[in-house]
């Protein structure tokens, strides 16, 4: 029996899922960061293989046990689809595809993580996917297969509309309030409480001297969203700007693909996009202002589902 495995190699977690040709899930596994631009190539490969090993164990493929009616002696992983951010260059995709064929399955496809979101969340595997987590990115594909992307520049150059950017904006507003250079906001109090700090000046050591990573800082985004929901005008403005930034990114992709005047399926994922209804509402409102008709709109909680679907397609080809 030929099996397919889909992998979502993210900057924080890697998720692997094994399925049969009918799409039935047989095993799942998780590991650490599988994004080479975050973890480094060797570490990313190690975590991807760890996730696969755990998925195989969950499916009973390692132990000889049967699970979901699939005997391990008859099962082999025939195809893999590996989705990860930052693999837009042909040479990089080729290197990872060779590695995947050697280490995982004879039929392999390595694609941008936006494409697996699109496969998981759109009816016909075309439209635009927007990812708003620690970072942000929009990725789109037409019915004819033309692709385009916008955003995804990283936290130093700019991940507009991301959790990191929203958190950084919250910190900036808190610092301005502490100095009297900006409007009073509950963000100062809430951020200090989140980090168990007493005085505003303690923020400097907490941010610059404690080894915070972008994902750690991005956790403050939830503080900003909650303050906005409770009526803080400064936080509300930051959330509104985040939604608009994502809409601008989506519009850029639609313009590149020459589909801006069509009804475009939209798939959304990432911790911020999934958890913050207020940001989604501002995104859709800002898209309407730009005459974008986004429908249907799907929330993708498990992008790895799209990777599995694409891996199954490799078996069927």
Question: Helices and strands in order, then pairings?
Answer:
Blueprint: E1 2-9, E2 14-20, E3 25-31, H1 36-39, H2 41-59, E4 66-67, E5 70-71, E6 76-84, H3 90-103, E7 107-112, H4 113-121, E8 127-132, E9 136-141, E10 147-151, H5 163-179, H6 186-194, H7 202-208, H8 214-218, H9 221-229, H10 233-257, E11 263-269, H11 271-275, H12 277-289, E12 293-299, H13 304-316
Parallel strand pairs: 1-6, 6-7, 8-11, 11-12
Antiparallel strand pairs: 1-2, 2-3, 4-5, 8-9, 9-10
Helix pairs in contact: 4-13, 5-6, 5-9, 5-10, 9-10, 10-12
Polypeptide structure, described:
A hairpin with a 3-residue loop joins β8 (127-132) and β9 (136-141). The protein has helices at residues 36-39, 41-59, 90-103, 113-121, 163-179, 186-194, 202-208, 214-218, 221-229, 233-257, 271-275, 277-289, 304-316; strands at 2-9, 14-20, 25-31, 66-67, 70-71, 76-84, 107-112, 127-132, 136-141, 147-151, 263-269, 293-299. With 317 residues, it is α/β, with parallel strands linked by helices. The protein is globular and about 65 Å long. The model is unreliable at 63-73 (pLDDT under 50).
Counting structural domains, the number is 2
Q: How large is the count of helical segments?
A: 13
Helix fraction, binned, reads 40-55%
CATH topology of the largest domain: Nucleotidyltransferase, domain 5
Radius of gyration: 21 Å
Low-confidence stretches: 63-73
Largest sheet: 5 strands, mixed
The ordered H/E elements are EEEHHEEEHEHEEEHHHHHHEHHEH
CATH architecture designation of the largest domain: 2-Layer Sandwich
Strand content: 15-25%
CATH class descriptor of the largest domain: Alpha Beta
Strand tally = 12
Coarse structural class: alpha/beta
Mean pLDDT: 93
Strand order of the largest sheet: 3-2-1-6-7
Annotated CATH homologous superfamily of the largest domain: ATPase, nucleotide binding domain
Tell the overall outline.
Answer: globular
Compute the separation of the termini in Å: 16 Å
């Amino acid at each position: 029996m030929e099996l397919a495995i889909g992998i979502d190699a993210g900057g924080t977690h890697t998720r692997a899922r094994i399925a049969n040709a009918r799409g039935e899930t047989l095993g799942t596994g998780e590991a650490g960061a599988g994004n080479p631009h975050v973890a480094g190539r060797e570490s990313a490969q190690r975590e991807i293989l760890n996730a696969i090993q755990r998925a195989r164990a969950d499916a009973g493929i390692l132990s000889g046990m049967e699970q979901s009616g699939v005997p391990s002696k008859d099962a082999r992983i025939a195809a893999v689809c590996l989705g990860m951010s930052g693999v837009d260059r042909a040479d990089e995709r080729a290197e990872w595809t060779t590695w995947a064929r050697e280490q995982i399955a004879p039929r392999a496809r390595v694609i941008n993580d936006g494409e697996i979101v699109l496969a998981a969340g759109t009816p016909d595997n075309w439209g635009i996917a927007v990812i708003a987590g620690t970072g942000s990115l929009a990725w789109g594909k037409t019915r004819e297969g033309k692709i385009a992307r916008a955003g995804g520049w990283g936290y130093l150059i700019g991940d507009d509309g991301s959790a990191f950017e929203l958190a950084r904006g919250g910190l900036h507003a808190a610092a301005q309030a502490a100095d009297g250079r900006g409007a009073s906001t509950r963000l100062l109090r809430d951020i200090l409480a989140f980090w168990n700090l007493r005085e505003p000046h303690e923020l400097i050591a907490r941010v610059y001297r404690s080894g915070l990573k972008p994902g750690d800082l991005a956790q403050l985004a939830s503080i900003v969203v909650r303050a906005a929901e409770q009526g803080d005008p400064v936080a509300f403005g930051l959330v509104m700007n985040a939604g608009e930034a994502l809409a601008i990114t989506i519009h850029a992709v639609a313009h590149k693909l020459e589909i801006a005047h069509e009804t475009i399926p939209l798939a959304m994922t990432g911790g911020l996009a999934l958890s913050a209804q207020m940001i989604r509402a501002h995104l859709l409102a800002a898209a309407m202002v730009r005459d974008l008709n986004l429908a249907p709109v799907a929330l993708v909680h498990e992008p790895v589902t799209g990777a599995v679907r694409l891996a199954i397609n490799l078996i069927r080809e």
